[in-house]
Structure prediction request, 234 residues.
Amino acid sequence: MDAVATAAPAISGVRHQVRVRDLGRQAYEPVWRAMSALTDRRGPDTPDEFWLVEHDPVFTLGQAGRDEHVLMPGDIPVIHVDRGGQVTYHGPGQIVLYPLLDLRRLKLGVRDYVCRIEQAIIDTLGDWNIGAARREGAPGVYVAGAKVAALGIRVRRGCTFHGLAFNIDMDLEPFRRINPCGYAGLEVASMVDFGGPSSMEAVKPVLVAHLAAQFGLVAEPADPPALRDPGFPR
Prediction:
């Protein structure tokens, strides 16, 4: 059963800046290595960041992921990664957003962090009059029973990396090659299937605004990271 979507209370106090970096379309592994390296280099004063990216086609299998959930990958590569969760697909037409946040500075626990990400997606869909909900025991966001956004996170020394994948206007065929998030037969959909926009550029600023609001942050555009020098964005 879908849980009722309730907004988390706003974070009060000093509003810190979050740097928003749009990487465009990228292969998965260099971005993963860069955000992992940045997380390792973080100190107590390191600014928080949101990384937006559209990945080349790839299946990623989380730390607890079981190979049997990858049914017929075909020509799409499978990468074992260090996030939570099972298997998912990234590809064109999907917004991937990696929040690189210091939860200690925000005074948040992991459960609250996950709920706030889900709420930001629910609120984004609501701006296009699309009713959405979270589902108890199955992180992500669902519309009419179909999953439109998946979450896979990692927290290291109180700092987050990995993040969310939000289907905007995708070719959904690759999801039939896996058990999405470890659930056989799970229906997957895109925002456009429910009357939303087909343009990721229309959705990105709305999603960023809602996500920043959930964490009490002020979004500030910044240059994309230099992936050739992982973990040391400009």
